[in-house]
Amino acid sequence: MTPQKLLINRLNPSSLLRRGWVVILLALGSFALCQQVRSATDTPKPSDDGVPISNTADGQLALASITTGIYNTAFGFYSVLSLTDASFDTGVGAATLLLDNGGTNTAVGAGALFSNKIASDNNAFGAFALFNNDSSGNGTANFNNAHGRNALLNNVDGDENDAFGDDAMEQNTTGSQNTAMGDDALDGNTIGNGNTAMGKEAGNSIIDGNDNVVLGHNAGIGIVHASRNVAIGSGVSGPFADFDDTCFIGSIFGEIVSDPSSQTAVFVDQFNVVGIFNSSRSYKHDIQPMDNASETLYRLKPVTFKFNSDWKGTTQYGLIAEDVAKVDPQLVSRKGSDIVTVHYEQINAMLLNEFLKEHKKTEKLEATVASLIATVNEQAAQIQKVSAQLEASKPASQVVNNP
Predict the structure, then answer these.
(1) For 224-237, what is each residue's pLDDT tens digit?
(2) Which residues are CB-contacts of 71 (< 8 A; sequence separation ≥ 6)?
(3) Cα separation of 392 and 387, whole Å?
(4) Residue 231 β-bridge partners
(5) What would the pLDDT profile of 300-350 be if each residue is shown by its tens digit?
(6) Cα distance between the two ends of the chain
(7) Residue ranges of the domains in the chain?
(8) Considering the entire predicted model, what is its pTM?
(9) Which residues contact 175 (CB under 8 A, 6 or more apart)?
């Protein structure tokens, strides 16, 4: 049944009689069907403890049950009908805060906060906003803000939710501390907590995931049960759609609009801080030659492997972080006490050091070989010279003529 039909059904006189309103209707007698205007300035009267009552009502049965409550305002047919001793309620529109006796609630729009019983500090602006709030009567659905038609329509016990936009968080029942800004934002969430969605239809596929952040039109669509995801300008599809702790950023893969001269790799630490690996001397101290420290590389064991999350089963090449930690604990990255990955950028620097060491050895060896070749050539030249001198010193051969 739509909220409109449900509202009409609940406001039907026969329905009210069945729901226990007989006493109220009989007490009102001949003026029950007449529009009423009551104000503290017209007929001030004290409460039981002598505190003046200052309430304002305009509309059929508006504030009809008030007893000792003060500073309440009701405008509209059956607005704030059931309130007796609570205070600081404001209802503007037909059947706003109809069942409420919690106080400190504000409802603007037909049926806004219609079913609220004892929960307090809620604000509803828009037809049927927070319509079912606190319909359980548990009194836990407090500090909610709904702005827009059907915003937080089905919320029952959720608290500290902020929904801005038509149908924003429409299906929420017990989810708490969510923020939705945009038409249909988080409109599928029911029991998820701590989600933030900004943009039309942002995060509207989330049902019970927690602490997700989605920004942009249709951002995060595809997340259902997953938690702690971030989606910026991107929906979620493929095998990663419902993974926890995943970040999605639109318009980033394959883009070539960038300045090649200033591009640099981006890193993230265990505290989720994003930055670059600075190389300037101004960021460093205790600078020493690496020397033989890079020889740790010779104890590492490269392997091939496949990631558990890779549905394609692609063969990868690299190192196992736990094995690297046994060789050199400083070559691995940790999240808390858990080993996560290898500092491959450090290994690259170590490889460079080893390459340079070998290059120096090669240069020295080449110089030695060149020197030996020069010596050999020089000796060969001297030998050739001596050979020529010996050849020149030989006596001339004599020719004998026989008669």
Answers:
(1) 999 999 999 999 87
(2) 54, 55, 87, 88
(3) 9
(4) 214, 248
(5) 999 999 998 888 899 999 999 999 999 999 999 998 999 999 999 999 999
(6) 151
(7) 1-160, 186-250
(8) 0.75
(9) 155, 158, 161, 169, 189, 190, 191, 192, 193, 195, 208
